[in-house]
Amino acid sequence: MLFALAALLALLGTVTDPAHARRLHLVAVCDTAVAAVALLYPWRRTVRNAPALIGLAGFVVLGMSTWSFGGVAAGTGPFLVLLYAWAALHFPRWILLAYVLPATLAYLIPLIITGQPPLVLGSAAIIMPVAVTVALLIEAQARHLRDDRERLARIERWRAAMINTLAHDVRSPLSAVQIVLDELREDATGVEALMLDGALRQAARINRLADALLDVQRIDSSGELKLDRQEYPALTLVRDALTYLHPDEEIEVEVGPDLTIEVDKQRFEQILLNLVSNALRYGGPPVVIRISRDGDVDRLEVRDHGPGIPESLRGSLFGQFAVGGPEGVGLGLWIVRQLAVAHGGTAAAEHRDPGVAMIVTFPALPSRLTPP
Length: 372
What we know:
Blueprint: H1 2-16, H2 21-40, H3 53-68, H4 76-90, H5 93-98, H6 100-113, H7 118-121, H8 124-187, H9 190-222, E1 229-233, H10 234-242, E2 251-255, E3 260-264, H11 265-282, E4 287-294, E5 297-303, H12 332-342, E6 347-351, E7 356-363
Parallel strand pairs: 2-4
Antiparallel strand pairs: 1-3, 4-5, 5-7, 6-7
């Protein structure tokens, strides 16, 4: 782009300086050639710093430009600084220092050839230190940014490996625990049966948490989740999900017996359990679950009667690790929003007096929409 711009300016220069039109046309052709090589040559197949050779060709063309304008370096200086700035973004500092000699020669030789006075020649003592200093500052900043990016990439790889390892390693011992609990449950009665039922529910919940960790990794890596959406009775979905919670929790369900919704059953349960768990943990009883239909959108509402959302959290409520604390890591609402988006819906918080209502929408599948 830099050399294409230089070629365009050389052509425009023929209008203001027609006496040197042939020279300027030559400069435009050279600039275009360098731009084409820079764009089309397969640099990725060469050694890392091979594109620095473009800079050497650029200095030659800049020298030709000064000569074409009869020794006027008004345009050469800025392009020299820009060329150095480009090099600083991509190459180590030793290349910038190696550029000093060819850049100085490209600046001075045309001035000497055209017989410029010593005062003009002395301008190199200003332009070259400025170009090198600017380039070194840019190179230092670019190097720090590259180092930070590599460090963040290493942290991200470690985090992804940790999540995968944790999620997978939890499943094996958990499966053994569930098998033992199932065997014990077959012969248990009375209080023992209730205790084992509770243990099985919590084991299933741990398994779902492992799935949630894997969901976090899948969403981060691919940006999307594959869903298996089918039509289910809404009331049955809610009742099945609530079996994972303690039966003594103060939860009210307001869902019509004939209402059906089209969702991924497992993901819907994740959404509902995350919202209800948050309402029980941070809000106040009773927790009310409502599902209603608004046109072609099904609307899930989970409302608590607690103190509401602090002002400081409203802007980041659905972000990763936004509401973490002693009882959680702050991924629940982020997962809720990602699962809602995967369904084509939304997740939002609405103020109530008292409390707050978490609203998740589930658009109907295209096959169920009535054509106009």
